[in-house]
């Protein structure tokens, strides 16, 4: 068999489809392997460039193949799809991966370590618990309203509401029993969230980059930890604008024939990280509206031209650029004019 120089591998739980080419770009390998046979195949194969689609389990296989001496390139699914000629099956996907990897302008996903994935698991668990708590509190409010018991917005109002329910003797016995089940579940969720928050704060305090990023107004410990966890290699971005574009905080470009047409933000990249930055920017804007003497002239002028929600996205874009600069340079944040809405690296 001719020397294989490049392999595209389509992965799944149990079946792995391979497509390899030689130096003349001729297909010399079309092979389907079961999970138990895949490792044995690559163990015997000389060091080769392997392309994998960035998906569930891909970082694990990338680390394993790298340990066997192979050069692994991970490609985002949206960059592979244009190379699928017709239809969709495992063989076509493997061929598309092999071809996409050969493009000089192709962008690749950095392989994460097991420790980095464990840290991301911590963030994901926190997000899931918060969603479960929100769902539970909405259910408690809804059921309580059916019996004429209402409470103001906010988590701090849930426990007083549950206490009022316990003291209300007019409720049916079954309803009181079911509300008590909800109360126990709410207490358990709160305890789990506190434990996860403690672990996240410990991770934040132990990481020097995360502590520096938390100095940026609107970022805070949660945003700082997510920025560090989700961008382990910020130097891979050519500029701060490329980083903001990766987060989906730049406008869509519909320009043609010399006419510039910019639309809404792309919403590309990581939704959770973008959401945290926008929420942080919203908090900065609320603070600026209450105390305009401490806000930056740039932010005050922006709020005069744009609605608060649009201004929050623009400020989130600026925060992302500052964060990229701090991560790449190792510098600390220093406000140039005021502590809110303005600043850079120093």
How would you describe what is shown here?
With 346 residues, this protein is an alpha/beta fold. The chain folds into 3 domains: 96 residues, ATPase, nucleotide binding domain (Nucleotidyltransferase, domain 5), CATH 3.30.420; 93 residues; 138 residues, no CATH class. It contains 13 helices and 9 strands. It has a 5-stranded mixed sheet. Strands 6-7 form a two-stranded antiparallel ribbon. A hairpin with a 5-residue loop joins strand 2 and strand 3. Helix 6 runs antiparallel to helix 7, helix 7 crosses helix 9 and helix 10 packs across helix 13. The chain is globular and about 80 Å long. About 1% of the residues have low confidence.
* Number of strand elements: 9
Task: Provide the domain count.
Answer: 3
Detail the poorly predicted runs. Answer: 337-341
Computed Rg:
26 Å
Q: Main sheet?
A: 5 strands, mixed
Q: Overall 3D geometry?
A: globular
Strand order of the largest sheet: 3-2-1-4-5
Helix content: 40-55%
What's the helix-strand series? EEEHEHEHHHHHHHHEEHHHEE
| Distance from first to last alpha carbon | 58 Å
> Which band does the percent of strand residues land in?
5-15%
Mean pLDDT: 91
What is the tally of helical segments? 13
Structural class per helix/strand content?
Answer: alpha/beta
